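Explain this record to help learners:
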Amino acid sequence: MTKFTEHCQGVVAIDGKVLRRSFDRASGKSALHMVSAWGCEQRLVLAQIATDAKSNEITAVPKLLEMLALQGTIVTADALNCQRAIAQQIVDQGGDYALALKGNQGTLHDDVRLFLDDAECRAGTAAPVVEADHGRIETSTATVSTDIDWLHKQHLWPGLKAIGKIVRVRETPDTTTTETAYYLLSVALSPERFNEVVRQHWGVENRLHWRLDVVMNEDQDRTRLGNGPHNLAVLRHMALNAMQKEGSKGSLRGKFKRAGWDDAYLYSLLAMF
């Protein structure tokens, strides 16, 4: 795995997904929870690791990071994994991070929020980015500040070089909502690049988790016994990687059908492994 990932650059998104129907009430076995590293530029699953419950994702992520060569990458993760030990490990492995920050870090979140929301703070702000899709318009505005000496003195966060926030305004025919998210950064990104990195992180949801659910019906899989759920989850990731690397035109669902109908095409996919 390290040999494969040593050439990967750009954003590596870390996120978990629970296989809803893999729990076994009779044996008291909880649903399988897979944590994946998604290469946003490559659109490939770089590594995955299983854990039994959402609360254990924090302990699984360090093991997942150990599988990766992080030199030249920016690792993104949600607020659950915004932990000092995880930040330190990313920096120690030669990578950078952009970690979502919420109340689980106590006063750190409050301090970052109060500073960035102050109209007098020294920060750079990018022009708003507008995206429209399926009747929804989303406008995101990114702000980054490197004026964080005061934050270092109070919190001593590993590798911290900048802080940022994204303000998202979502408009639908019925409602308009505003959301503000705050981030810790180990590299002083421009506001434009910061906005791009955060948007790329959601590729793990749109290009991996959504495909697993909608195209491969993962949440409907009732395999529960032994290592079955884990083994099938890994095989699904491998199949998605193969389809992505294969490169021919056509939908993902269409490629799966073709693999079932055309032995030559199936063999060409299996030869990638």
